[in-house]
Design goal:
The protein is of the alpha/beta class. It is 43% helix and 17% strand. Helix 1 crosses helix 5, helix 2 (55-65) runs parallel beside helix 3 and helix 6 crosses helix 16. The structure holds adenosine-5'-triphosphate and magnesium ion.
Length: 415
């Protein structure tokens, strides 16, 4: 199934490719269409993908007179010998540093070995899916251990004041504390953000210093802007001052987030409830999304619009998550979780009750829900959401599979 969405969340993590040029030479319109779709994937948003027909012959002709791009993707319909002699000729015109990915029909170990010997980076068997192409191209530019690095989770409210910030801060806290995953919360609500208050921190620097001087941004610079909340949790705080206005362009946060992504396993974005070029871009570019909604009609409509837009903009990703918050306000008529599930075509990851006696003190004392009451079932909900959003729920389930060879070895030894 091309571009199968909803694969194992943890395994599906693919780091986005940098600004590279990719040229594909296809034999079939199907493969050309697949590569076209891959080029539109968020992870290849910075890459420049050009597609033409004619396979390896067209590639040789093209590069006889012009320099080669960062990546050449060749589809080949032919037999082993023809593929190899074609690639040998192509190698003569290839610049050093150009990587080659071959898409072919021949399933043969000998061919695979010969391709590897010739420095071909990847051989994909037909039929290929959109996500296979995305993974192959991105894989060329990520370090071997990059798998654990750089998952971005964006949390946004379907309406203002629904508790999106509170939920993002509590989830990030649980990811750091209970999953021991190094995490940074970035408070993107520059004028009004509450992450500093919620974690009881008042750092002199934060996200504004990075976003307002993108030329200075590198990992060491961003590192100095972080304030440590717990062992595994740091905050990139919002200034929460009004001495200037914050009108950002679509890609204003790119360098900061790229830098964070390269050093931090998990980045939680507290995205303010607004629809602008940069919020839209951040949501579409995130690895996982959580939409927080209250149980009323305006929230339902907005959540549906958000989820629909994000689903169509991210056809090769699993669908965004959503949760309901502040459910069960006394005397208030509410829309049920079942009606939400029907309209949004998926179940909420959590239904969090309205509990002012719990959330009120937490907000006013700069504490997390777990710190107010670790055993409370809402604290447990945040731990579960942390697992779901980082793909840890699956990891736990598959643990039996990982352990069994080890156990069987031990048992053999004992016997
Ligand atoms: N389940 C809940 N029960 C009771 N109070 C809650 C609950 N969730 C959040 N709150 C409270 O609601 C208020 C608004 O929360 P928060 O600031 O997180 O919302 P937001 O969606 O980020 O708002 P904004 O649109 O201003 O960014 C806070 O005082 C918070 O403590
Ligand atoms: Mg907020």
């Amino acid at each position: 199934m091309p571009g199968a969405a909803g694969e194992n969340v943890a395994d599906a993590h693919i780091a986005p490719a940098p600004r590279v040029s990719v040229q594909a030479f296809c034999e079939t319109v199907e493969t050309a269409a697949t590569i076209q779709a891959a080029g539109e994937d968020r992870r290849l948003g910075k890459a420049h993908v050009k597609i033409q027909m004619g396979g390896i012959a067209a590639a040789m002709e093209a590069y006889n007179s012009s320099p080669t791009p960062n990546v050449i993707l060749i589809e080949t319909d032919t037999r082993t010998d023809d593929i190899l002699s074609g690639l040998d000729k192509l190698a003569e015109v290839c610049d050093a540093g150009t990587r080659v990915i071959v898409v072919g029909r021949v399933n043969d170990v000998k061919l695979y070995r010969e391709l590897t010997r010739r420095g071909v980076s990847e051989y994909l068997m037909m039929p290929v899916g959109t996500i296979d192409i995305v993974r192959a191209i991105c894989g060329l530019f990520s370090a071997p251990d990059a798998k654990a690095v750089g998952r971005i989770i964006a949390v946004v409210g379907a309406k203002g004041g629904v508790g999106a910030s509170t939920i993002s801060h509590n989830i990030a806290w649980a990811i750091g504390r209970d999953l021991a995953l190094d995490t940074v919360v970035a408070d993107l609500d520059l004028p009004f953000g509450t992450a500093g208050l919620d974690y009881n921190q008042d750092p002199p620097q934060g996200i504004a210093d990075a976003v307002l001087s993108p030329d200075r941004v590198d990992t060491a610079f961003v590192d100095r802007l972080l304030s440590k909340c717990t062992d595994h949790l740091s905050l990139l705080a919002a200034p929460a001052t009004l001495d200037r206005v914050y009108d950002f362009g679509a890609d204003s946060f790119d360098t900061t987030l790229d830098s964070l992504r390269s050093t931090t396993p998990c980045v939680v974005l507290d995205v303010p409830h607004q629809w602008s070029a940069w919020t839209k871009r951040l949501l579409i570019g995130a690895d996982d999304i959580l939409v927080v909604a209250g149980p009323d009609l305006a929230n339902l409509r907005n959540a549906k619009n958000l989820m629909d837009l994000l689903r169509t903009s991210r056809p090769n990703d699993h669908r965004p998550h959503y949760c309901l918050n502040q459910v069960g306000v006394p005397k208030r008529p509410e829309i049920s979780p079942a009606d939400f599930a029907k309209a949004l075509e998926s179940d909420p990851v959590a239904v969090i009750p309205f509990e002012p006696q719990l959330f009120g003190p937490a907000a006013n004392n700069g504490q997390m829900i777990s710190e107010v009451s670790a055993k409370h079932k809402t604290a447990e909900m945040f731990r579960e959401m942390a697992k779901a959003l980082t793909g840890r729920a699956e990891a736990k389930r598959s643990r039996g599979g990982l352990l069994s060879p080890f156990l069987s070895k031990l048992m053999k030894r004992a016997g």
